[in-house]
Specification:
It is a single chain. This protein has helices at about 15-20, 20-40, 50-75, 75-85, 95-115, 140-145, 150-160, 165-185, 195-220, 230-255, 270-280, 280-290, 295-300, 305-325, 330-335, 340-345, 350-355, 360-375, 385-405, 405-410, 415-430, 440-450, 460-470, 475-495, 500-510, 515-525, 530-535, 545-565, 585-605; strands spanning about 120-125, 265-270, 300-305, 570-575. By secondary structure, it is mainly alpha-helical. Among the domains are: about 15-85 and about 195-255; about 270-500 and about 515-520, no CATH class. The strands form 2 sheets. It has a two-stranded antiparallel sheet. A two-stranded antiparallel sheet has the order 2-3. Helix 5 (about 95-115) packs across helix 28, helix 9 (about 195-220) packs antiparallel against helix 10 and helix 14 (about 305-325) runs parallel beside helix 26. The longest helix has 28 residues, at about 50-75.
């Protein structure tokens, strides 16, 4: 029974799912060898009840051996995509350009009005065969396989997500990552119920693992054991009872709705702090080096408990984008492509864009990280504002990605940039006395050395110092940290939207990366996904014409919904469904859309991205 592995976990790495055929061969060989050994060692004169005991224990063991490769096959990419898309599935899109524009206009209107009561449970149009429940649930199924969602599903997700408070949205995102973990790494029947072969095999395994060992223990108690040594009998009893209780405990845990908990911590890594730590803890670093643990210690030395606060900050940034920046399909894409441009332009810092933002992304991360530390530790600075703490925490996390997980930061990111910058600090401080120096003292010593005329004016450290001087010349400290925080929020969103879903799912197997949280948030907040960005449709129509046609299609759909409520799609409140699409609501939506159409087309004709007049904010409270 132990040959099939644990009842709960199927894979330790996501690559195991793709090797399910190898596990089938392993299961066949294990069962064959077990049968051969049993037949060779069994005596024909032995008690038949002992034979029955062995067979009863062997049956669930065979089921478990073949359940694991079936679970791995179900969680493989081919298995997942095949279950979501039948062989005859195809897109029914007639004009993706207009569909994109229509989605953007509807999404802007939904985020702006946000009038749906959050205390109601909503019926979101379920994905094919998956989690048909009458309440919002973040399910990153197609998302992590980098398959495009239809715009109807995306609008339903957006509508539901923005109806939640910050707290409920955070919990929904945690549940979504937990579901993804269960789907990829666990033998969870709720996530694999669409696979009939696995579903039946898993049920047979669970039933046989409980009933048959009970019968086997009973037969073993009643059998003749006098011909065997007492120690052998005791060991057999111990093995039978331990096996039975392990199966009971595993099944209870599997059926107790246990979910993988998302940690509240965010990994932190600072270049200046890393240098100071190596100088301050030389003996510890030497011991870790001898134990081959220094790389692990370097990557996960420091964390902060700000996942919830950073998530709320990013959510606010995305909401501001929908309200103040995104007017049409072009600005929708430009917002997803921004990695600090919007903040710098809004704060009047255009000169910093070409100097630091438009470099290769990994170089921009390094420059802004070191510059953020220089500003944080500068003489006379008092960075006690919340935006200073959040900005620096995001900065340290992005540096952690560059150092420990560059593939998730951006394809082609270079870890050796960190090593090069570290070597620059070593050369800069060569011969300096650094007894037990802390981060603040070290940062000030570096800036003093760079400011001296005798030091070379090339390299990452010098460029970061120049950037920090430009930032500190902005004026008051509050404005400085608002700029830094805004740039880092855009950068983490830029990185999350360009990381493959496979890497997000893979990271869950080793504890997860906080970037996956931002990735899931951006998708359900309505922004462009990785799959959509890779398959962008060319915008051929003039902006004014495209917006006008999209608005006409939305108004026609609203009129049809008012006359025929059965055609309503997306999200409809479970309670009072007959009032979900009244003529009054349709006329109100028409008025809002017409007003925004005029605003969008006017700004488009002027070639601007000015924000439309915002509707009165509606506070949404989610009842417990």
């Amino acid at each position: 029974m132990h040959l099939g592995g644990q009842v709960t976990i199927t894979a330790y790495n996501i690559e195991d799912n793709e090797l399910w055929k190898r596990h089938v061969l392993t299961a066949i060989s294990q069962v064959t060898v077990a049968i051969y050994v049993f037949c060779k060692s069994w005596s024909a004169s032995s008690d038949k009840r002992l034979l029955a005991t062995a067979i009863l224990v062997f049956i669930p063991g065979v089921f478990k051996c073949f359940e694991k490769p079936l679970a791995l096959k179900c969680a493989s990419f081919d298995g997942l995509v095949s279950s979501w898309f039948p062989d005859n599935s195809r897109t029914t899109s007639a004009n993706r350009e207009l569909e994109l524009e229509e989605y953007v206009q509807k999404a802007r209107d939904s985020v702006k009005r946000n009038k749906i009561p959050a205390e109601l449970e909503f019926h979101v149009k379920p994905l094919p065969g998956f989690f048909k429940k009458k309440r919002l649930r973040i399910v990153p199924d197609k998302l992590f396989t980098d398959v495009m969602y239809p715009y109807s599903d995306r609008f339903a997700n957006l509508n539901s997500f923005w109806s939640l408070s910050d707290e409920r949205a955070y919990m929904a995102l945690r549940d979504g990552l937990s579901i993804l973990f269960d789907l990829v790494y666990m033998k969870d029947l709720s996530t694999k119920s669409v696979y009939k072969s696995y579903y039946y095999c898993a049920h047979c395994t669970r039933v046989s693992s409980i009933i048959l060992p009970i019968a086997a223990i009973g037969l073993f108690h009643s059998s003749h054991k006098k011909v065997y040594r007492g120690s052998d009998v005791i060991v057999t009893y111990v093995l039978l009872y331990i096996t039975f209780f392990i199966e009971i405990f595993s099944l209870i845990r599997l059926s107790s709705k246990f979910s993988w908990g998302w940690p509240e911590t965010v990994h932190q890594h600072s270049l200046v702090g890393f240098f100071a730590r190596n100088k301050r803890h030389t003996w510890l670093m030497s011991i870790m080096g001898c134990l081959q643990l220094k790389n692990f210690l370097d990557k996960y030395w420091c964390t902060c408990s700000s996942a919830r606060a950073i998530t709320n900050l990013v959510r606010g940034h995305v909401k501001d984008g929908w309200l103040d920046y995104i007017l049409d399909a072009e600005s929708y894409r430009a917002f997803s492509d921004s990695r600090g441009h919007w903040t710098l332009k809004g704060k009047g810092c255009v000169q910093l864009i070409s100097e630091s933002i438009e470099k290769p992304f990994d170089e921009s991360i390094l420059l802004w990280h070191v510059a953020t530390d220089f500003c944080f530790h500068s003489k006379g600075a008092s960075p006690d504002q919340e935006c200073a703490s959040r900005g620096r925490e995001i900065s340290n996390y992005m540096m952690h990605l560059l150092f420990a997980n560059p593939d998730m930061l951006m394809p082609g990111s270079r870890t050796n940039l960190f090593t090069a910058a570290y070597k620059e600090i070593e050369d800069l401080l060569h011969g300096e006395d650094l007894p037990l120096v802390d981060e603040k003292e070290l940062a000030q010593k570096i800036t003093d050395k760079v400011a001296s005329s005798s030091i070379s004016r090339e390299g990452f450290i010098h460029d970061a110092w120049v950037l920090s001087q430009e930032l500190m010349r902005l004026g008051d400290e509050q404005r400085i940290w608002e700029v830094i925080e805004g740039v880092w929020v855009e950068m983490i969103c830029f990185s999350a939207g360009r990381c493959r879903g496979f890497l997000h799912a893979k990271s869950l197997g080793s504890g997860g990366e906080y970037l996956s949280f931002i990735w899931l948030l951006m998708s359900h907040a309505g922004l462009e996904t990785f799959a959509e960005r890779q398959q962008r449709v060319q915008l051929r129509l003039p902006k004014e014409e495209r917006v006008k046609i999209a608005m006409q299609r939305i108004q026609e759909a609203a009129s049809n919904q008012a006359t025929d409520p059965s055609t309503a799609q997306g999200m409809v409140p479970v309670k009072e469904e007959e009032n979900a699409a009244t003529p009054a609501a349709a006329s109100e939506a028409d008025g809002t859309l017409k007003q925004e159409a005029n605003s969008a087309t006017t700004s488009a004709s002027q070639g601007e991205c000015a924000a439309p007049t915002s509707a009165p904010a509606v506070e949404i409270v989610v009842s417990p």
